[in-house]
């Protein structure tokens, strides 16, 4: 799957991923009203609204982008109907040829991590049959529990040709509280990065590993260090746009081959029509605003990479 | 909710929680076959099998125990139907008067953590209505992302009178890879424990905080240190039984008031009928075997506490 992701990044010349994190407040009034007319103001109605919202954005942007990253929390908040909308979104994006990175940040131990891995990236056995529950192509994983928590995911990825992005240095302001603490003179995130690199070297696609890392765009200097610690790991970079990261901050996350990083934007793309810059599209044309925001983001990053 | 949990622990004189982590391989053949006869060998069939399995165990043990801890991964592996079985299990246990600890180990940042918190412990707004998606009473949370990740959960707990157990030192063999690394001479888990204690002091029930911690039974010495670092935090202790923890290892997790800890056993209870010790019950009477295993676990822990 890492090979497919890289092919798609090259084909689109767009090292970006659109975060499908649909807060109900991002969904234009007319989309909400149509869903509520059919299902009422229920969890099913909310799930229908976010699904229709996603579908329009995917239709408007899928030729420009290699991948999407649905954030499962935004679906999970709507209970079981929300999880059904998540699965429907994953399926639809895959039908459109997109690589799907499930931003699930799961992590547990042993058989429990295996259950998460099986449910999201693999197949679960039921009697003589087997089923793929949520069938994302990649998943994000939390490493706090150590190897026991990560290895079951790696095992399933190997069997199913899927991939991971492991949290190393997250984009949020307080990520340093634990991640930046010094251990033998080096911050925790570097130790986690070294572990990711070690796992990565044992699990290679053609040129990059299918065991990648998450490093926030908001910490470009740390990104530079982590890039060199994990030369073969793809880095998923959140924090661009709404969280403050800019194109020029991103250059250190890439390797000299122009590859090695994929930059996520969620709100900046899917709620673009709410920004002053794209207000002229109007709420009716929210998906066209998202398309323009993708074009602008790709230009920003390409320009930064060319000037680097 | 922490007050209710403590009341129930006192009323049952059982500081234990039954982990409802139903691997399909734990579900007796006759329960599986009945579910498959109705729904086929499908995800729905698997979900029905684990739900019927849970229901029988809850019916057989609910008068003896204060709480259950369903592990969401075991449901999530069966996709959307699995998540529906999870919600049904939570509802049923609450109807039976049990406190439900959702072992979800979620953790993200800002609005994303808030979405998890709302979906599992709170209410989500849909138009003019609001709904509780999975409505557990407590949830486990992963602290790797720092305060940004935890505070949205605390906020929802405060509003909804729910509670948290934050991962401090997990029970698995490799938990030390990151959690035990020394920072200014003290292991990371102690720093996380101090943070949990600080959050806890600001969010108190009558005698204990509703911000608790997870500390594995497999690390009793660390449990002793963490007990003194977090005097007002309830400690959820996994790792008893199948993972190797015994009654005598647990005494240091309790305070002198005999409270302060709640010990989980999953496989040891729900798959008791598979153990030699309880084999005479037979697979047909798996729930009775679980009841006996609860009685034996409570006796083991009470004896250890009395001899401490």
Automatic annotation (TrEMBL), chains A, B:
<dbReference type="InterPro" id="IPR013785">
    <property type="entry name" value="Aldolase_TIM"/>
</dbReference>
<dbReference type="GO" id="GO:0004590">
    <property type="term" value="F:orotidine-5'-phosphate decarboxylase activity"/>
</dbReference>
<keyword id="KW-0665">Pyrimidine biosynthesis</keyword>
<dbReference type="InterPro" id="IPR011060">
    <property type="entry name" value="RibuloseP-bd_barrel"/>
</dbReference>
<dbReference type="InterPro" id="IPR001754">
    <property type="entry name" value="OMPdeCOase_dom"/>
</dbReference>
<feature type="domain" description="Orotidine 5'-phosphate decarboxylase">
    <location>
        <begin position="15"/>
        <end position="281"/>
    </location>
</feature>
<dbReference type="GO" id="GO:0044205">
    <property type="term" value="P:'de novo' UMP biosynthetic process"/>
</dbReference>
<keyword id="KW-0210">Decarboxylase</keyword>
<feature type="active site" description="Proton donor">
    <location>
        <position position="105"/>
    </location>
</feature>
<dbReference type="InterPro" id="IPR011995">
    <property type="entry name" value="OMPdecase_type-2"/>
</dbReference>
<comment type="similarity">
    <text>Belongs to the OMP decarboxylase family. Type 2 subfamily.</text>
</comment>
<protein>
    <recommendedName>
        <fullName>Orotidine 5'-phosphate decarboxylase</fullName>
        <ecNumber>4.1.1.23</ecNumber>
    </recommendedName>
</protein>
<comment type="pathway">
    <text>Pyrimidine metabolism; UMP biosynthesis via de novo pathway; UMP from orotate: step 2/2.</text>
</comment>
<dbReference type="Pfam" id="PF00215">
    <property type="entry name" value="OMPdecase"/>
</dbReference>
<dbReference type="GO" id="GO:0006207">
    <property type="term" value="P:'de novo' pyrimidine nucleobase biosynthetic process"/>
</dbReference>
<keyword id="KW-0456">Lyase</keyword>
